[in-house]
Amino acid sequence: MKKKTIAITTAALAVLAAGGSGAYYLAFGPDGVVLTAADVTTVAAKDITQSVPATGTIAAAREVSLATTQTGPIVTLDAKVGQRVKANQELASFDTSAAERELHSQRASQAAEEITAFNQIEAAQLELAHSQDALDQGLNGEVNAARASVDTAQRAYDDAARAVADSRAASDPSVAEAAAAVDTARAGLRTANNASLQAALATLGAAGEGTADGATIATSLLASVEADDAVSDAQNRVDHAEESYAHALEGVDREVGSKQRAANAAYAQLSDAQLAQRAAELGAQQQIATQSQAVNHALKSAAGARVAAEEANAKLEFDISGSHLLSPLSGVITSVTAQQGRPAEGPLLAIADDSSLLVKATVKEADIADIKVGDRVTFTSPSQPHKEYTGTVSFISPVSAAPAEAAGSGASTPAGNGTGAGSGKAEFPIEVRVDGNREGLRLGSTAKVKVVTHEDKDALTVPLSALIGGDKAVLVVSDSGTIERRDVKLGTRTDFEAAVTSGLRRGDRVLTQGAAHEGDVGQQAYLPDAASGEK
User: Which of 69, 278, 284, 303 falls 20 to 30 Å from 102 in CA-CA distance?
Assistant: First the structure.
């Protein structure tokens, strides 16, 4: 092995100690610096990562809380914390005897009510059919009596009118105009009577319907009053026309004029009888319509009662069908609050699907901006202290956790503005999806998490203590042995070292304590064999 020859004089020997880093060097005169192996590092490639630390808790990605609508006692309970269950596995059963008794009693009452409703429908249908048949077959008493009155009045009028028509006075040209006026007035009265009758029936119908509002009834009443006024006006016109006609006949033949007055009286009776007949017929039709509405109402009431009964039964049937509590998924029971023999109320137990795991952690406010969804994560757990697990950030909360909660198990409670009682700083919840091997992880275990925010593969690195000039340069021992200043650009940085993206190459010798040697730039460095690389 080749040896360096160094002339050492007693007068020039000086030993200098270099402060807190523990590094030191020997100066031999003004032209050289002797370095130890600890003063120099050879640049090599390695993977370097920058990460954010966090603490959290292992949790299932999906957890459900089971409850029931039952109020009866819990008969059986096959569940305990940590127990593994399968989907649709029975976990508990409930006493539903009270609901079964209530359903039986309810169905009996509904059956009796349904029979009563059926009888009402049948009675209404029979009454309607009877009225319709009576009208169709001419058996309606009121209508028949009115028709008989019309027939009698018609014969009386025909006789009275014939006595006038057979006289020569009726054919006199001087009375023809008065006779025509009577016919016109009588036609107007018939029209007015019909309109009045229709308006009266409409008013009765509106008042009889439970769905008609006050405005509709008021409108019908007003129309009926107006129709009655029209009848009164038409009757006055008829009276005037008949009196004029009788007076004109008396001018020709006084006896014929008297016969015409008798005919006028007979016509008035006929008109009243016809109006009464029309009213009787419309009244019969109105009665049929009312009875038809009663049938429809009875049918709708029965249908509504049936729907209400089905809904009431459905609730009890649902409660009875839920007499067994089944697991909705495969997983592990994480909590049990139910107790056998006690009433079922509130949450009974919780099941976690641990086929997919999460780490629920919190990150300091100062670090949360460096993290994004998709970042790679490594973590360890005290339950498996010698294993490292991997994951991926899947969720970052936009709302901070209360400091007191964040400092606990890793579960978080939203704090709105991130402040809480005490002096703790805000922390933000994140969720990490566990990837790859998860053997040995237990629900509820704590986890020490590192979220990888920057990562350089196969990067050239230097210790942070080597950086000078605002972390923009390092000191390098050149191939000729001279200490040189080299400008560099940095990449990923950790607490101890930084990746160099430009300014260095593999194999360069960098002084580890750059600040201690800034005054030695340009001097010759003397290295021990191990640091120089010479053989």
Answer: 303
Q: In what order do the strands lie in the sheet with 509-511?
A: 40-42, 509-511, 473-477, 483-487
Average pLDDT, the chain: 82
Helix axes 97-136, 254-321, angle to 10 degrees: 160
Nearest one of 260, 265, 286 to 200, comparing CA atoms:
286
For the cut 70, the answer to whether the pLDDT of residue 27 exceeds it is no
* Residue 219 backbone zone (phi > 0: left; psi -120 to 50: alpha; other: beta): alpha
**Alpha-carbon span 382 to 502, nearest angstrom:** 41
Residue 235 Cα distances to 158, 198, 228, 379, angstroms: 21, 18, 11, 107
- The three state secondary structure string of 410-446 is CCCCECCCCCCCCCCCCEEEEEEEEECCCCCCCCCCE
Structure-token match 């009443």, residue found = 221
Kind of pairing, strands 509-511 and 497-502?
unpaired
Helical packing angle, 141-165 and 254-321, nearest 10°: 160
- Encode pLDDT of 361-415 as tens digits: 999 999 999 999 999 999 999 989 899 999 999 999 999 986 555 544 444 444 4
Question: What DSSP line would sit under 368-409, residue for residue?
Answer: GGG--TT-EEEEEETTEEEEEEEEEEEEE-SSPBPHHHHTTT
Q: Which residues pair with 431 in a beta bridge?
A: 360, 395
Residues 464, 468, 473, 477, CA torsion sign: negative
Which tokens is 439 given? 């053997």
Element housing 173 (H / E):
helix 173-208
Q: pLDDT tens for residues 509-531?
A: 999 999 999 999 999 998 766 45
Per-residue pLDDT reduced to its tens digit, 296-314 = 888 888 899 889 988 888 8
> What is the chain's alpha carbon radius of gyration, rounded to the nearest angstrom?
56
Tally the residues of the chain.
535
DSSP three-state, residue 251: helix
pTM of the model: 0.53
Alpha-carbon torsion, ordered 144, 150, 156, 157, to 10 deg: -170
Three-class DSSP category at 481: coil
Spatial contact of 430 and 371, defined as CB atoms under 8 Å apart: yes
The residue among 401, 396, 356, 400 whose CA lies nearest residue 373 is: 396
End-to-end CA distance of the chain: 6
Residue found under tokens 């952690």: 361
Residue 421 has pLDDT above 50, yes or no: no
